Structures are given as C-alpha cells and as structure tokens.
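Bumping with the actual sequence this time:
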Amino acid sequence: MADERYDFTIETLGECKIPSPIELSKTVGDFRANYVHDDSYVRYKVNVYSDDMSDDVTSANLMQKAGPREFIYFDPKHVNVGICTCGGLCPGLNDVIRAVVRCLYNRYGVTRIHGFQYGYKGFFPDDGFPTIMLNPDNVDDIHKIGGSMLGTSRGGGQRVVDIVDCIEKMNINMLFIIGGDGTQRGALDIANEIGQRGLKVSVIGIPKTVDNDLQFIDRSFGFETAVQKAKEAVSAIHMEADSQINGIGLVKLMGRESGFIATATALASHETNFCLIPEVPFDMGGPNGFLQHLENRLREKHHAVVIVAEGAGQEHLTKTNQKDASGNIKLADVGVYLRDEITKYFKERNIHINLKYIDPGYQIRAAVTTANDSIYCERLGNNAVHAAMAGKTKMVVGLVHEKFVHIPIKMVTAHRNVVDPEGAMWRDALDATGQPILMVNSMTGIHERLERASSDARKTPDEK
C-alpha cells in the first residue's frame, strides 16, 4: 500500500448555476459563516520526512473540503430525495437521518424526502415495504432512541438494476445511503448504473461502521459511543473478577478484521490486562502463549480482564465457510472458544478460577449516541446534504485530520483500515494492558502470519 497512488477527484453532475438559498458570506471578518469553494482542500499526507520534502499538491493528496457552496446544481423546488440505512445497527443512525432531513427541509426548502425501509430491500416492490415521507416533525425526536427509524437489513445491494429501476420510476434525483464498506460498494455500483442510463442523480454515502474500519476517515460515527458502552461492560466485568478468587473477566467486542474498538476500550478502561485483536496473532499454549501469561497474571494479581475482538484468533477455530447476506464470512465464536479453553486449561492444572464471560455487542449497537458522537452525526448529515445539492456524486463525507471532506467511494472502500501493530495506538495499548508484545512461542512464520492477517483485512468480501 505504501506505493499506491490515490486519486481524490470528486465527480459532479454538472455546472452549479443556481444561487444557494443559504445566505452565507464571501468575506472574512463579518461575523458570518463563509461558503466553501471547490478549490479548498485538505492534505491527506501531513507527515514530513527528511528524505521526501516534496509538496504533493495533486489529486493524489488533496481532499476537497465539505460544506455549503454559493451556487448549487439542483433547484430545491424540483428535488426528490431518497434515504436508506443498510447493514447492522450502529449508534447514530437516527441522528444522521434527522440531520439530513432537517438540513434539506429547513435550509434548502426540499420537502419531498422518501425514507426507504429496511435498507436496499425497500427498493423492491415485491418485498412490500412502502417508503416513509420524512419531515422535521417526524424526525425531530428520533435521536433520543437507538436503532434506525427506517429499519435496516443486509444484502440486496447486488440487485443494482432493480434498485435503479425504482429510483427512475420514483424520479429520485438525490440518494443518501448510510452504511459500511459493503453498502458503499453497492452505492458505487448503483451510481455507475445511474450514469450508464444517463440519469442525473447524486449518490452520497454516509459511512457507517461501528468497527471504524473505513480507510482514510479519522473515525466513523458510532465508534465513540461503542467504546463508551464497551468501557462500561469492562468496568462491570472487572468488578466481578476483582471480587472473586482468581477471577477472570472475558469480554468479546465487535471487530471482524479491525481491532479498533477492542484497542480503544483497553486504553479507555485502564482495567484491561489482555487485548486480543485480529491484527496480532497469538498462540494459546506453550511457554509464551496466552494461557501461560494469563496464569502468570493470576498468580501475581489474582484476577484478570481479557478483551477479545470477534475476529481475533480465528486461526485457532474451525472455519464456518459460510457467508452472511452482506457477503461477509461468518466467523466462529472466539469468545466461547476462549471461555472453554481457559476453563479447560485451569481445570487440568487444578487451579481454581471464577470466569465470567459477556458479549455486549447488540446492546452496544443499539445504544443512543454520546454527546460528541451526536455532534459528529449532525455535521456529517449536514455536509452530505451540501454535497448533494452541489451535484457531487459517487462520494462519501468523512472526517480527515478533524476536517470534513469529500472522498470518492472507490477510494474509501479500496482497502479496510486496520490497527497497525507497529503503530503508536497499539504501542500505547500494550503499555495500558502490560501484556507481552507478542504471545507466540516461535518467530518462525510470524511475519507470514502477520502479513496474512493484514492482507486479509485489506481484502474486500468479494476477494475473500
């Protein structure tokens, strides 16, 4: 990936000639917010190295800033909008829907806003899910509850022709698709089919993945809430473990190929002793295996807390060879596996333990957002609307270096973002837990295992 050439050029439907109904400023110092221009960018590469002093002011490094434009492409009186939420639940879905609807309605005067129910399946007449007309009145309070008021589902994105048929029949000219990497790949296929038909439809993705595994973006919405709720689970399991004889608290968290939630929770909790993530392989047995280090911890401190990401340690489990509706490989349950192996290990050594295991995944996914996440969702939704009104398409809105920018869908879904085992975040997590750098018995093949884990994380579901 180091030599990969990026292209952050944003596609547009045409020239923007219509004055925006949002009255902002074009000058500095008048105490009014300013319009954002298309030639305003954020550098993706901000690190400076002594052996490379080039100033890469090209489409390979410049991300277009998000925000309201002075001139827009669509006439608000003729805009017909569609919104859908796809994939698994994630904190913040309702916050984003609310922000999109209110910005369209209150700022641009767009009143025809259709909510498609249950993800892409809402586009298929044979499934029988009618659209919901959205307005500020029926979305005003939805941020106070979890889930999605539109419902969500996996799959259906491969029926591109049927989806675009629906868009064409309903005269939709602006589509907001809220979902993760698989959903956004589907959004790009939809946008390409729209283009082949010569339709003028803006397709804007709002990236949703609780695992925080979308490339380039600082964080996806819902991630901060997930870490907060996971931290609460770890706090409870630590209390259980610390109150028992050789108490062990085991918590399984989300993270199929990327261990960001587990790593961040370990950093936030200050009570985690082992953090197992997909990016870092580990051995179970042997003198430098996980179980031996867990035994050493119990002998010294008499309790331990273990966090495991759902995709960690899959090399130790029997593969299911099955896929879900989104095309993701169904993972074997590493939480149950660890619970049983830990119990077996200490029973064989006649060491008394008290093990408590919890999987708070669905509780976390359905949670109401934290304050900061809610702010993020509001601003994501607003900036998505500004992009669509300006005729941008085949793009997502995201936060990069704390700036809202436009990123082509094909770029953000090219690879999966993963925790760097040699990076600062994992280094600090090791300091927080006190666990060994690597819990493996031999370095033979370790680089291959690390590379395989990293390569698997970067692949799309279609490649796996």
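The tokens above came from a reply further down the thread. The two ends are 18 Å apart (CA to CA).
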